[in-house]
């Protein structure tokens, strides 16, 4: 029988990240300075990021070597396992062969440390003493706390107040890894004090938390800021996932017909998909690449492709991306990592040019797939990757009807050990689905975009 | 550099469990019927367990073949990884080489599924429809819920009321795997109704929950009961851990000088240690085997070696073991899996005959080791295995002083993703240590043993 786990030996851990910018059939639109309307340059980003990350953000080289110190930390959990979902296939009675690349083996329990570790490394190397960041439910904050511990950096996290109070366990995990965690809004920044003066009982938002973390970073040259998705260098770091999966599938003689991954900011999907896109463009395979987003936050399938801010209150450069408007507030769905108004410019460009597909799924369908997966494969998935699982199950059931033996590769980007309250809501039938009408979304996006600065 | 992860290929998964009874230098004392004082026979256990498990309980064969259906489920996570703790060693500045065998990769997040899966398999094969069990914090209940889902069995769990109310996430995880979970005491059994009549707001105990699960099992021939530690067949199933670790250490040319594991009922420690004891008795290595127990529940280091009940209210046969008295109530330490008044008869016999050592550790020292481990190795350990980590760190620091390059093998039996409230207590300095005076323990044990039935 074909093995259940396809394990890549540690000495075959990829030593380069793949830069999809090198191979794009058409170049993506530039990132613009909101004041000048002109493309931003490295100096604009220097108060926030070290120069090596800024250069990676705009690099046209096909590959970037992974530093040895980063590989040493990656080896704590990488190469991550690729699984054949024998028991799920049997339960579905499908001729499809389902594989899942599992990133839940990492210290934070998701794919986030793949970029947190190099971000911490390059910052430490440049003499930075501390990193600041924001976090919602806490996945990204946990990853950065762990990464900072590896390179002797302090780590300061602003966690959205509602999560800070209601989900204390992610906060504790950040503290176990040595981070200092503040509820946001806080009295520690001007942005936080302003919000608290207006709304003393504010439960916060990711936008406010970003403002606080950025403000704390720019005031001290020894302090930088780190972001967990959306940007080119973040997606670059995540390609280690797809490079491993390529080798692992080849080890069992398989070529994928369909690759599915969930998309919030886009780093999980991009990390798995980009190396397969390279193989597709080289004519070595022809997989369909399908991004799966929540129906409650459908940036690719219902958003507008336009320049918009990356944050809610307008501190960032303007990026051309699929957006629901920078002040869009998604429903409080349980897949907190997918509640983002925009989509990575790289993923947006690939979608706009027809290289990838996208579908939206309601969360009840996703949790149903998650429970079936747990009962067959033994892993309770995070709410985010249940979106990919729902799409994989859907395709496998199509195969059952058609008799096609498709090879489906799924990004299982994290476990759900800290998301059991969400499963409890699903099992108690208190999950609420929200499907947007196209017209409602489009008028909201149009209104948000009128509030942008005029571009020259 | 030596690899961080020593991965055993899936086709080298052990196909036999090792039965330490075959090789014991002296046989252990028999288990006695509390009514007759005579050794119990298979028929005494038939209302609770299928005959194949009863025969494994008393088998003298050196090896028991693992059924193919059990191996198929084991392959979801087995062989489990063996890690070299490079980054912990560096932080300790020790010449010792520290390895940890990690069982947190299993569906329940601990070593418990190693026995839950074969127990569910043999029961399903014997025509049983449902398994009942008790659980405290929920590790064992989760493992059995998962195992029952694999073989189409119903699973009914009585969870101690205090845990049921205060730690809802383990309950949810059992429900995700398909189990029905009741708070104990419940109105569903005579035992539960009796307790509730006397104490309507009872928060329950493991002893009461055992009574309810056993009562529900014996009333229906299609329902059996399952136990997660202590018994010979449970320790037999766990030897798959040690058999894998033996091969993995040999792959990197290492022989252990010290093996440390935490002990509650004894199945984690026995599972790792027994195959190494076989090698020791065969003259192929000479490791020290050290059990580590909580100072708040020191059955090996301060208990009495005597016949006692396995449960609190006296339903089980009498087992000769190290005991704190069947009505001993340990402090509510965070390592719930180590809060048991007795010790597996096999482990007790090996301790009494000088084959293994034991030490007791206060929980604050254990959490300190757990936090250091998380910050270096990236895995947040469950409170139980932090006891083994504390002993490993202690030995590694001795090696730093002496310059000895000892090889230390540690049983890391589970992750702490559902134990973060315990870490929060530690980081908030609200952990309480309890060290028993020998005299206090011994008078308590003596009093408990006077309440036993007279043995002929």
Span from first to last CA of chain A? 62 Å
Overall average pLDDT of chain A: 94
How does CATH name the architecture of the largest domain in chain A?
3-Layer(aba) Sandwich
Global morphology of chain A: globular
Kindly state the number of beta strands of chain A. 15
CATH class of the largest domain in chain A: Alpha Beta
Q: Main sheet of chain A, how many strands, which sense, barrel?
A: 7 strands, mixed
Provide the structure class of chain A.
alpha/beta
Q: Indicate the multimeric state.
A: homodimer
Query: Largest inter-chain interface?
Result: A-B, 45 and 46 residues
**What is the beta-strand fraction of chain A?**
15-25%
What would you say this structure looks like, in words?
The structure is a homodimer of 456-residue chains. With 456 residues, chain A is an alpha/beta fold. Chain A folds into two domains: 5-108 and 231-427, Rossmann fold (3-Layer(aba) Sandwich); 113-225, Rossmann fold, CATH 3.40.50. Helices cover 42% and strands 16% of the residues of chain A. Chain A has helices spanning 42-45, 51-58, 68-74, 86-92, 113-125, 139-150, 161-166, 168-176, 190-198, 206-218, 232-251, 267-281, 299-302, 345-352, 363-377, 383-402, 420-427, 438-450; strands at 5-6, 16-18, 63-65, 82-84, 97-102, 130-135, 154-160, 180-184, 223-225, 258-262, 288-294, 304-309, 318-323, 357-361, 407-412. A seven-stranded mixed β-sheet of chain A has the order 1-4-5-15-10-11-14, sandwiched between helices. A four-stranded parallel β-sheet of chain A has the order 8-7-6-9, sandwiched between helices. The first copy, chain A, has a two-stranded antiparallel sheet with strand order 2-3. In chain A, a hairpin with an 8-residue loop joins strand 12 and strand 13. In chain A, helix 2 packs across helix 11 and helix 3 (68-74) packs antiparallel against helix 5 (113-125). The longest helix of chain A is centred in the middle third of the chain and has 20 residues, at 232-251. The radius of gyration of chain A is 21 Å and the shape is globular. Chain A starts with a strand and ends in a 6-residue tail after the last helix. At the A-B interface, helix 6, helix 8, helix 15 and helix 17 of A face helix 6, helix 8, helix 15 and helix 17 of B. Chains A, B: This is Tryptophan synthase beta chain. Chains A, B: The modification N6-(pyridoxal phosphate)lysine is found at residue 112. Chains A, B: It catalyses: (1S,2R)-1-C-(indol-3-yl)glycerol 3-phosphate + L-serine = D-glyceraldehyde 3-phosphate + L-tryptophan + H2O. Chains A, B: The beta subunit is responsible for the synthesis of L-tryptophan from indole and L-serine. Chains A, B: Belongs to the TrpB family.
């Amino acid at each position: 029988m074909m093995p259940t786990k396809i394990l890549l030996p540690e000495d075959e851990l990829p030593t380069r990240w793949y830069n999809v910018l090198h191979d794009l059939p058409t170049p993506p639109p530039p990132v613009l300075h909101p004041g000048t309307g002109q493309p931003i340059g490295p100096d604009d980003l220097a108060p926030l990021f070290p120069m090596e990350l800024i250069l990676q953000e705009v690099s046209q080289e096909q590959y970037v070597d992974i530093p040895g110190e980063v590989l040493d930390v990656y080896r704590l959990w990488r190469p991550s396992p690729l699984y054949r979902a024998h028991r799920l296939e049997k339960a579905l009675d499908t001729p499809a062969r389902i594989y899942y690349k599992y990133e839940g083996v990492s210290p934070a329990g998701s794919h986030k440390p793949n970029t947190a570790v190099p971000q911490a490394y390059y910052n430490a190397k440049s003499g930075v003493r501390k990193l600041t960041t924001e976090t919602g439910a806490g996945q990204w904050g946990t990853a950065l706390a762990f990464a900072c511990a590896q390179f002797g950096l302090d780590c300061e996290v602003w966690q959205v107040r509602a999560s800070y109070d209601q989900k204390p366990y992610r906060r504790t995990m950040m503290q176990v890894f040595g981070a200092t965690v503040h509820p946001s809004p806080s009295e520690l920044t001007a942005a936080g004090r302003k919000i608290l003066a207006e709304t003393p009982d504010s439960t916060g938002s990711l936008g406010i938390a970003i403002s606080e973390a950025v403000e704390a970073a720019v005031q001290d040259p020894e302090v930088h800021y780190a972001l967990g998705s959306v940007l080119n260098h973040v997606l670059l770091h995540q390609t280690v996932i797809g490079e491993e999966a390529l080798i692992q599938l080849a080890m069992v003689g398989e070529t994928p017909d369909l690759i599915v991954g969930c998309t919030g900011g886009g780093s999980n999907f991009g990390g798995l998909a980009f190396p397969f896109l390279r193989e597709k463009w080289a004519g070595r395979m022809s997989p369909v690449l399908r991004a799966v987003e929540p129906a409650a936050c459908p940036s690719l399938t219902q958003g507008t492709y336009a320049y918009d801010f990356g944050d809610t209150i307008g501190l960032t450069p303007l990026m051309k991306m699929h957006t629901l408007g920078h002040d869009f507030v998604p429903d409080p769905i349980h897949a907190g990592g997918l509640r983002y108004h925009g989509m990575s410019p790289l993923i947006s460009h690939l979608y706009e040019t027809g290289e990838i597909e996208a579908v939206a799924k309601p969360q009840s369908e996703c949790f149903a797939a998650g429970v079936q997966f747990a009962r067959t494969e033994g892993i309770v998935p995070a709410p985010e990757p249940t979106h990919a699982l729902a799409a994989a199950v859907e395709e496998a059931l199509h195969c059952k009807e058609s008799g096609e033996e498709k090879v489906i590769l799924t990004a299982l980007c994290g476990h759900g050990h800290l998301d059991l309250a969400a499963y409890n809501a699903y099992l108690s039938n208190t999950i609420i689905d929200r499907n947007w009408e196209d017209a409602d979304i489009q008028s909201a996006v149009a209104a948000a975009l009128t509030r942008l600065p005029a571009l020259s």
